[in-house]
């Protein structure tokens, strides 16, 4: 797992390196709570 303070800055960094974005989504629920620990978190 990678944790960042500013997802937009990190995204631009990888796009500059030549990576391609295939999409964007919000992930939430029990699976995210299990992986990250605290309940009720949302991830993009």
Structure commentary:
The chain is mainly alpha-helical. It has one domain. It starts with 6 loop residues before the first helix and ends with a strand. The mean pLDDT is 80.
Give the SSE layout.
Elements: H1 7-16, E1 27-28, H2 30-36, E2 42-43
Summarize the structure.
The protein has helices at 7-16, 30-36; strands at residues 27-28, 42-43. The chain is elongated and about 35 Å long.
How do the SSEs run, as a string of H and E? HEHE
Q: Can you give the helix content as a percent range?
A: 25-40%
Q: Radius of gyration, rounded?
A: 12 Å
Distance between the termini: 13 Å
Beta-strand percentage? 5-15%
Overall form: elongated
Count of distinct structural domains: 1
Strand order of the largest sheet: 1-2
Biggest sheet record: 2 strands, antiparallel
On the 0-100 scale, what is the average pLDDT? 80
> Which runs of at least 5 residues are low in confidence (pLDDT < 50)?
none
> Structural class of the secondary elements?
mainly alpha
Oligomeric state of this protein? single chain
- The total of helices stands at 2
Number of strands: 2
């Amino acid at each position: 797992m990678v944790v960042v303070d500013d997802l937009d800055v990190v995204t631009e960094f990888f796009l500059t390196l030549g990576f391609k974005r295939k999409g964007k989504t919000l992930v939430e629920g029990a699976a995210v709570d299990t992986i990250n620990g605290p309940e009720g978190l949302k991830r993009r």
